[in-house]
Amino acid sequence: MLVTLEGLDGSGKTTVWEALRDTYSDAVFTREPTDDSWYGEAVNRAIGDDDADPLATLFLFTADHADHLSRVVRPALDAGELVISDRYSDSRYAYQGASLRDSDLKRPMEYIMGIHAAFTRPPDKTIYLDVDPETAAARSGSTNKFEQAAYLAEVRANYERLIEAEPERFIRIDATQSPEEVLDAVEAALDDILADA
Ligand SMILES: Nc1ncnc2c1ncn2[C@@H]1O[C@H](COP(=O)(O)OP(=O)(O)O)[C@@H](O)[C@H]1O
Ligand SMILES: Cc1cn([C@H]2C[C@H](O)[C@@H](COP(=O)(O)OP(=O)(O)O)O2)c(=O)[nH]c1=O
């Protein structure tokens, strides 16, 4: 089973993901962008480059996803493991959907979903850590171009569209709560997911 964690920068995904390692020690913990491949390195260069072309950046993130799928996600799923990924394809739909808003693409989010549809493995469940853009930008320190409140407001609107389209896949958690409350809510959601599996 594939469970993904999604949300704005600063929503607390990484904090939760790290804590889950103790409670779900048998699961495979992974993330996008990857941190153990040259594809991930290329993505991180694009994140740090304010002049990086948004369409080129989409394809770098998508290349990293393809490698992540074939090298980590599919083998683990084939072996019957529970895979928990800190960010996954919805991040592309929401973030690059926003950064390509003013491009020549008519419907950027639909275009990006179309690119993925032919090869990706959709998540079984997605835990969405919901936080307002101002809190997100303040918590993340606004250190890169993706962490500005105005941009994050557009990203959040895209996540809302994704949730509206697939309400049964998403579990929304109020991420403005304390870290302990957020973790308790995520663990309760995961327990329910695994009980239903
Ligand atoms: N529920 C929370 N309340 C307040 N601060 C939080 C909470 N969760 C995480 N943080 C803090 O916010 C910052 C970003 O958290 P992080 O887990 O890295 O978020 P993300 O991976 O979603 O960007 C960190 O400094 C972290 O300690
Ligand atoms: C996976 C992914 C991340 N991103 C962005 C979100 C983050 O601003 C940045 C790095 O992701 P990440 O390291 O997960 O940042 P954080 O822990 O702060 O949430 O890359 C995309 O724009 N598209 C993507 O497909």
From TrEMBL:
Location of the Thymidylate kinase-like domain: 5-185
GO molecular function: ATP binding; dTMP kinase activity
Protein known as: Probable thymidylate kinase
Record-level GO cellular component terms: cytoplasm
Pfam family, one: Thymidylate_kin
UniProt-listed GO biological process terms: dTDP biosynthetic process; dTTP biosynthetic process; dUDP biosynthetic process
Enzyme class of the recorded protein, top EC level: transferase
Binding positions (ATP): 7-14
